[in-house]
Each structure stands twice: as structure tokens, then as C-alpha cells.
Design goal:
The complex is a heterodimer of chains A (110) and B (515).
Chain A (H helix, E strand, L loop, with lengths): L6 H18 L14 H13 L14 H10 L14 H13 L8
Helix pairs in contact in A: 2-4, 3-4
Chain B lengths: L13 H15 L4 E2 L2 H4 L18 E3 L4 H14 L3 E4 L18 E4 L6 E5 L4 E4 L5 H10 L4 E2 L11 H6 L15 E7 L5 E3 L33 E8 L1 E2 L3 E9 L5 H13 L8 E4 H6 L16 H11 L4 E9 L1 H18 L3 E4 H4 L3 H9 L12 H4 L2 E6 L2 E3 L2 H17 L6 E5 L3 E11 L3 H20 L12 H7 L2 H14 L15
Parallel strand pairs in B: 2-4, 3-4
Antiparallel strand pairs in B: 1-2, 5-6, 6-10, 7-11, 8-9, 8-10, 12-14, 12-15, 13-14, 13-18, 16-19, 17-19, 18-19
Classes of the chains: A mainly alpha (110), B alpha+beta (515).
Chain lengths: 110, 515
Amino acid sequence: MKKKINQTAVLAGILVIGVVASAIAGDALAQAAGQWRDANHVYSKICANCHEIGVGPVIKGRNLDPDYYQSVVRHGMRAMPAFRPTDVDDAMLKQVGEMLSKSPAPGGSK
Amino acid sequence: MPSKYIALPKGVSEKAFDAAIREYREILGEANVFTDADHLASYSKIMIPDSTDNHTPSAAICPASTEEVQRCVAVCNKYKVPVWPISTGRNLGYGSAAPGSRGQVVMDLRRMNKIIEVDPVLCTALVEPGVTFQQLYDYLQENKIPLWLSCPAPSSIAGPLGNAADRGVGYTPYGEHFMFSCGMEVVMPTGEVLKTGMGSLPNSNTAQVFKWGYGPYLDGIFTQSNYGIITKMGFWLMPAPPAFKPYVIRYPEETDIVDIVETLRPLRLAMIIPNAVVIVHALWELGSFLKRADHYTGTGSIPDSVVKDMVTKNKVGMWNVYCGLYGSPEQNEVNWNIIQNVVKASGKGELLTAEQVGDDPVFKYRADLMQGKMNTAEFGLYNWRGGGGSAWFAPVSQARGSETLKQMDMAKKILGKYGFDYVAEFIVGWRDMHHIVDLLYDRTDPAQLKAAHDCFDELLTAFSKEGYGTYRVNTAFMDKVADTYGPVKKEINRKIKRALDPNGIIAPGKSGIWN
């Protein structure tokens, strides 16, 4: 049964994975305040959603003040939604602002 | 003397509110209670055509557990403080994270973000309100669990619990999200914890597999309502099919909506087309990545002739129908042949597969959505007009061509009167269509904000007069929509509210329900 590449094998695979998943249930990779690895994690999971695909403007490599980033995040701007302290807390938001402020422009040119 | 709060709950003195805030802080800690204008700005930002002042919160409280929610509810009852629960707060064209009326305390459940269980055998999940679609998707990917989500668009920062509780939709065969929910945990206004369905039974292991339980089915009364605070919700997830074949059918004329619906309805009812099909108008399709000002700078809504030119130039349909086949390659082949024959026999529509479309980012985006892969590309719609104004107008139609045409004509006419564009799609249930119109306007322009408000009001009036109800509405128009469903429904909603929440503390006014 193990070697057969058919739907039965797919089902068996699900069952095997089931054991693994049950063991780690509850260890969600949460993406909220107090749970981010670092500023880049925040950027990749929130900011990049819009600012890397042309929906929002490029925000890396702009030489903007870190405080400006923080203010825009908390207040939103036009169509950009505001992000709450439960999304990203003040300390991490400060790090995000500093990281973006110092960041090179995407593609390496500044 | 001016208050130290940016708003106060209606009927609550500053002294009483001071005491309530003190008690919230004792329960949640200083860091999880906000009353300052800077932090509350993120709970006040709205896109809907209404004054921000009408939706300014008095505070935000952020519990991290069901037990903390219960304790906060007790404080709300003690001081008669109204509390507006939000999950991820990303219902942007419906009111965002802001309360329905000024002065309510926002209860932000984003910190409750545990994926409590994913059962890969029975294909279910149990999640808290703060879990995002992206988080759940990442969890499945990282643990190599071959289950698919159904998500709305755009949704990476939104969450499954709040979306299902507001009866939102997605694009897979599990696209009617509340229909595929199973079991809730609800903190009642009294502070009791109710588990619905099979969950009430001690030691039950069937809460996520059998919806109905015993006796009245209660889950529905906690959706689009203010009868309790949902702190956990179960979902059925779709096993990843062995093969997935996305396709698009493009139609050149607006009036083709009649043929589209008549052609597709039998296929949908027979589940030859298994997923929640979306019929996307050209201005939605193109508006997601083009700017209006590059194509039209005149006054009034964009002329049909300009839209036609854009359609020709960008090689899209005036209507673009996105569907998928989900099954074994053999099953998909059989259904594909049926679909090809039906479209061919109808004499209209250009049927294209992924291979035929080639490297088309819009097709890829839609194909991803039909597999439950989320992103935020559709926020590009907000660049069409610019200025951060959006209100979803969402009337329900029969899945009948003549009806969809009538609704399209009505919406276009009213939008045109106020100078707005018809940016719309129809999402197909089995027998209904969610007709979704994004009223896009420049919120930085007071004249447009007023026009958008008046336009939305007229859309509701005109559609309800024709017997078309809206399935969901933004927080500025909840009372008006509740009225369209008649006095008996409204009064029964109120009676339930009074019975369950005698102090009227949970989200007063949600869906037009007051006590």
C-alpha cells in the first residue's frame, strides 16, 4: 500500500501526517503582537502583501523617518488600513520603522 | 471640563468609565487597555461613507483568553458599558475595526489567535477569533497537511472566524463559509460560556463533525448579531484534490450577464461546477491594476465606450467568469467535456484554460483564490479612484439571467446619477447570486463622501422597493437594512436581544438590533 501512487496512498499519507499534526496542535505560528520573530517577519507577512506587489507604493529605500512609518501604520493612509497594537506592538513597530528607514531599495538600487 | 477620553459610552459618566477602565486593566494588564488617541486611531480608521466621529471608540480592550472575555463582560454589565467585539477587524468596506456607534469600547480579540486543532483525518479545524487566513494557511503548509482553505479576497490579514460570523464568502467548493463552519464557543452577555451543537455535551468529540446537536440549532443567531461573543469556531476544510483545473469564460457584452447565468446555473446546481463561481465585471477585473485617471478624467461615471476600449485593449471580457474543476484527472476530464459542450451550444463565451491564457497575473490571482491561496492584490481596486473610500453594496439576486440584468441596470443607473462607476461582480451560490458592488469614492473629498453616502442610501431604498434585500451592510446603514426586512423580524430580534442581554452591552445596534 505504501508504494502505490493513487488516491489510497494519498489518504494513507494524510493519516500519517495526522499523527504529526496532532502532536504539534496548539503551536500555531501566530502572526500578531508579541509573536513576531523580528521586523522582517512583520514586513514579509503584513507590509509586503501590498507594498511588494504594486498595490501600495514601495516603502523600502525611501530614506523616510522611522517615526513617519510608525504614524502611518497606526493611522492608516487613504486606502491603507490602520494596524492596531494587537497586530504589532509599539516596540516591534519601532523596529519595523527603523528597519524600513535604513533599508536599501528593492533590487539593490537606492 | 473636557473629558480625558476621546469619546464616552452613551449614558456612562466619566467617573463610572474610570472605574470600568481600572477594572479592565486589573484583568488584562496596562498594556492591553487603550484609551489614548494615538492607539485608538487604529480603531477609528474607516473607509465607509460616514463621519469618523460616528464610529469613534471610547477605549479598546484586548483579552487573550475566553476567561478574560468573561471577566471583561462582567465589568461591562456592572458599569453598563457597551462593547463592540472584533476578530481581525479587516472588514474594510463594511466598517473595519471601528464600533457601530460612537463611544463603544472595542473588544479586540486579535490576541486570541490559537489554532487549537487541525484534524487531518476528519478535515476540520478549530480556531480562535484572532487567527488570520495567512496564519492558518502557513500552518497547513508548514505541517504539510493537504487541506485547502476557502478565503475571501483579499484576505491574508483577515480571519476565518470573523468572516464566517459575518457570513462572508470565498471561491472554492467550500465558498459559503458559514455553511462550512461547525460548532462554536460563545461567551454570552451573562458571562456564561455556551458551546453550540455537540459541544455542549461533556466529553463530546463530535463538535466539529456534526452541526446540529440536539434541539434548536443556535449557531445562526450568533452570526451578524450581538447575542454573544464567539471565542472559538470550528470549520470543515477541503481535502486537496488530486487535480485542479481552473478556467475562465470571457463574454464581450454587459448584457451577456443573462446568457452567463442561464448557461451556468444548471451546471452549478448539478455540481458539474463545484465551486463558488465568480462573474467579474471588466471594471473590477481591470480596476484592480489600472488607475481611472489614466483612462477617464471627465465628470460623471466612466462612459461605457471608454470601458469597451479598455476591454479591447487589455484583452479581457466585459464579464469574466472564473471556475475550477476539482477531482481526479479523469473526473475533471469528464466534467470539462460537459462544460465545453454547454458553452459551445450556448453560442457565446470564450472558454480558456490556464495553458491558453499563459502568463496572465489576473488569471493566476483568480486561480489561486479558487485554491484558497490568499493575497491582497484586490486592494488594487482602491487605487482605481484613489482616496480610500469604499462601501460594499451587496444585494442578493436569484440565479436567473433576467434578474441579474435588472439588478445590473438598476445599480448602474443609480451609481451614474452620483458619478460613480459600476465596479461589480456576481458570486454564485447554488440558487442565488451575491451581487457585490464596490462603491469606490475619494474619501478625502467631502463632496464625494456625501455623494457616496447618498448614493448608497438610494441603492438600498431602490433595491428593497423591488424586493431585493442586502445580505450584509456597513455599520452606517445597519438600521436602514434591518428596517427593509420588516417590523416582525426586527421585533423578534429585539426580543431575543432583551432575553439574552438585558443590559444591552454587546454591540448595541449591530445589524439594527437594539434592546
